[in-house]
Amino acid sequence: MKDLFKNLKFAWKYTKGVRLKFFLYVISCFIHVGISVFVPIISANIIVNLTNNVLVQVLTLSIVLLLIELLRNVVIFLNRYFSQKVYRESFINVQSELGKEILKLENQCIDNNSSGVFIQRLTNDTSSIADIFNVLNIYLTNIFTDIGIFVAIFIINKKIFLFVLIMVFIIYLIDRRRVNLLNERDKEFRKKNENVSGFIGEIVRGIRDIKMLSAEDNFMDELHNKVVDLNQYRYMMMSADRNYTLLRNTYHDLFDMAVVFLLVYLIFTNELTISTALVIHNYMGRVTNIVGYGGMLMEKIKNFNLSSTRIFNIIDSDEFTKEKFGKKHLDKVKGNFEFNNVSFGYNEDREILKDLSFKVKSRETVAFVGKSGTGKSTIFSLLCKMYTVNKGKITIDGVDINELDRESIRNNITIISQNPYIFNMSIRDNLRLVKKDLTEEEMIEACRAACLDEFINCLDDKYDTVVGEGGISLSGGQRQRLAIARALVQKTEIILFDEATSALDNETQQKIQQAISNLHDDYTIMIVAHRLSTIVNSDRILFLNNGHIEAEGNHKELMKSCPEYKKLYESEMRNENEE
């Protein structure tokens, strides 16, 4: 019960904006309860008068009953209207809040969890939170309505009341055991469901690679095994539910028969009239409904508590760690930054960077080269605070990035990655994602600088062309150029190119190289490049090996002082000449 009140308090904040409608909904429920209490009383009087042949009274009560039923229909309509309003707004609020909190999670936390964890909680669990107040009202209304009949039986005959009370308590114990068992198994079921959702997401995202690898059968076998395991567990849950339901229904039937025997006995001993016995028997089903509604209410509450815990764990717990930023704010950075003895690894077993130190001045163009796995892209991730260093310090304009707020870092640094994600939107909307008030002129200029405008103008819908999920309708080079245009729209002081020209042909690469050169005096630029020909004009080149800087200088200096750099460059030149 303590958890329920805590979770209800957690859910209550998401009703903001519809609390008046919620109170109107509660009032309509109370009115419905009152009507539902009077209806069986009037119905009972109709039956009694009918058996006693008082027909005028029967007609009068029937008209009163009709008016009350019409009123109940209006109340039910208003009840549903208010409940749907409360659910809709609450669902929007909780889903938006959870989505916002997921975006705050540390990248490492996201890396360590399947996408299904977030998809299931964002879609299924949020529904349980938004619906809890409607659920409580519905079931409590039904329970209180039927309690009115329970009280009426107590007034009519104490023996029947005591007998019914004992029977109802036994059914309650059966239902409580069923709900507790299902709740425990539901925790494991949801984990399995998250795994299946995550794996399906991977299949959808990687479907083209799966086809090219001719691995459809292998993936379908794996999916089949996961789905079979999930549904076997679901069947086990439903089997337990089925067994307990059979037990409860069997007991319920025996209970109905026992009530009939008891009523016959009381009529035989003149403790009950036949008409009164008919009324009691007619409404006995609604008495046992109290247990049914109680069981369903317990099930909903258990489900709500579990969903609340799963959502709360993302929003405010140590299980899902959030990105941490400082409070210092820089409106516009100059672009000076420094790595001071920085060490970092994605796991504790292996460090990628080892006591790495270097400085970059404002408006300087610096390139990082080296073999794969030496930590070049990791430097960019740390600079954007996608991950937190294990040791050492990174500063921007002399301020530790751990002291800076999110906007000071993310609004002043643009990263153009090796594999940019293009959203299933138009080209225009992909660009407006980073700047809502983007003008037509700014959009065209960014695409021109990224050497993309000529391609766009050849399209039928031009900037309104929808590019498909992941930009599937674009070539690899076009996707990267769109990502470059998207980055240029931000106009940040620091621009990071992470293998941004790797998928471009030589002609387009030269155009992009020219675009980068045009930015030279206006931005601090860092480049990670596999093609050394793209960074020969950089102010400085840092050669990385085993997580630290082995050599630094401009292209000419490194050709003389760093044999490994010279070897990489000459090998690339030979390959290009052969092509």
Main sheet record: 6 strands, mixed
CATH class of the largest domain: Mainly Alpha
What is the name of the CATH superfamily of the largest domain?
ABC transporter type 1, transmembrane domain
Count of separate structural domains: 3
Strand content: 5-15%
Oligomeric state of the chains?
A: single chain
CATH topology of the largest domain: ABC transporter transmembrane region fold
Distance between the termini: 73 Å
Mean pLDDT: 81
Write down the Rg: 35 Å
Question: What gross morphology would you assign?
Answer: elongated
Major β-sheet strand ordering: 6-7-8-3-9-10
Q: How many H/I helices?
A: 19
Percent of residues in helices comes to 55-70%
| Protein structure class | alpha/beta
Report the uncertain regions: none
Query: How many β strands by DSSP?
Result: 10
Which CATH-level-2 architecture of the largest domain? Up-down Bundle
Helix-strand pattern: HHHHHHHHHHEEEHEEHEHHHHEHEEEHH
